[in-house]
Model the fold of this input.
Amino acid sequence: MEDLLEEPIMNNLESIKGLGPKTLQCLNNLGINNIDDLVNYYPYRHDIIVLNDIKTAVDKQNVVIECIVDSVPLTRRFRANMTSLTFRAMSNKKMIAVVIFNRAFLKTHIKPGSVVTVIGKYDALKNTVIASDIKFEKLVSGSVESIYHLTSGLTSKQLKKYIAEVLPKYDNYTDYIPDYLNQKYNFISKKDAVNMIHLPKNEEEVKKALIKLKYEELFEFMFKINYLKEINKESKAGYIRNIDPEEVNSFIRELPFELTTDQDKAVLEIYKDMTSSRRMNRMLQGDVGSGKTIISVIAAYINYLSKHQTALMAPTEVLAYQHYETIKNILANTKIRVDLLVGSMKKKEKDEVVEKLKSGKIDFIIGTHALLSENVVFKKLGLVITDEQHRFGVNQRANLKNKGLLPDTLYMSATPIPRTFALTIYGDMDISNIKTKPKGRKEIKTLIKNENELNEVYEMMMNEIENKHQVYIVSPLIEESEGAVDLTTVNEIKRNIDLYFKGKVKSAIMHGKLSKADKDKIMDEFKKGKIDILISTTVIEVGIDVKNATMMVIYNANMFGLATLHQLRGRVGRNEFESKCVLIGEEDNPRLKVLSESNDGFYITEKDYEMRGEGDLFGVKQSGDMEFKIANLHQDMKILLQARDDSKEFLDNNIKNNFANYQEYAKIVKEIMNLD
Done:
């Protein structure tokens, strides 16, 4: 480790002493691929250590106690993936039992006479601490414990050891806050902030590190947003389309359904945008099932009439295929040539599509990130549509737009955004909101049931099936895993369903680990009515439309965010039939109550925004703009608003000299403009 990081090659994780191939893979699974990633892998929370006296502890109290191990630990396996480890310990001259689940590997570290710190809940009746964690170092009251997201095979102690080993010699820091703002707000240095976020001496250091790193992250983010706004201002000139409105109205009249008032308004706004001399830059916000797709198709039709190509980019292949099938059917009686481009297609198929795009033989292309490939060239791109736009990064959205000279842009989102936030992030865009549901759609009835009422839920399922309808069941897990033993898995649900219905219904399982071919087969059978009950993970959250499905059952509903629950609920109610959503969870859960009281996605998102203390606004595991290392858009709105104003001022003062004094921002600009 003497020369760690002195040469670029030493940025490799393999240079860390004692880090083997298995641990390296664990780090890679967390997105940590080099020393830079390791240093910038921040804790998601900090716990202030307060040691308790077991003699004064009361029943069900959360405790942190220091104790001496008094017995050899015993392990027991009592379920397929469930183990317990038990030992006696002495704390302040009082003997207690300690139990920890699914930590059998700790047995070799727990030896009689050794001092350990036990963190858990005290059971006074059994004189037992049910431990959530066991530390093998002495903890001091008032000290701060950094808590990280981990993966199977990697312990907190290991991760902290690697970080502590690297930090003293690491010096590859880039501070994205301009010097004058660092001085204005009296921020600590980037190096100090990173060291304090990992190894804080006290709560005050945590606060200093958080304010610095959160502001920096949000400043950089808002700079990108503000720069794109500036570009849009400078390039407002667009294609002038002389389109007869009657041609558009004629297409709309041929649709097999009538547009809602909100849809009509959105179409008119888009038509005016696309026939004006300025480039369209519009956000189409719509609740689940509000009919955003047809609006995008009408926009593509307007674009087609002006002899331009349209590109629609979706975040997943599942959603891209869904759009492709839906749009192809809508446009079946027109001359518009629709095609698909996704990463999983064979090279020959992709090459053919790319060639047809270049020659102008495709009018409307639907795809994923594959559309961003360098070899994808359009003959005359006139309209870019980005679906679930928050799942794409700033650069990705800009890169697709840059494949045309003056294309109009239409962004779609099924996640309604609170007004303050929308104006902050998308203030340069015109926004169309679709709140009304298509005619004939009925409100989805939402019920909360606990696990003791499952037989009642099964009866409701049977009733739907007997009426020739189908049922979705969603669970957060495929199989039991460490730390989630109390959650119901899709496999367990399948066994219970088969046992209860005794072969009277056909059920199937679908999840993300299945091959595309297997998922396609299952979904095809479900769409054709060959499967009565589809048991799935959240892979069905977006993109899967089965109009005959009238019931959604969500197990462990309290594990999901409101936005996700609302998206899942939106998989049913896409027909004229009465539909229902059953949430299996705690009846007094405030988030579930909100969902049971309203079908309004805008209202639900506002409530989610008020209530959520962790996670980003758009749900978990997103890969686009809204995934931050340390900032939280709910908690840090004040910082976001300040960063927005500061970044705008910084941009205005430096854009003319191309950020000559700020090379890090010159680089960001190049990335956005796809010049690297």
Summary: The first helix runs from residue 21 to 29. The radius of gyration is 28 Å. The chain has 21 helices and 21 strands.
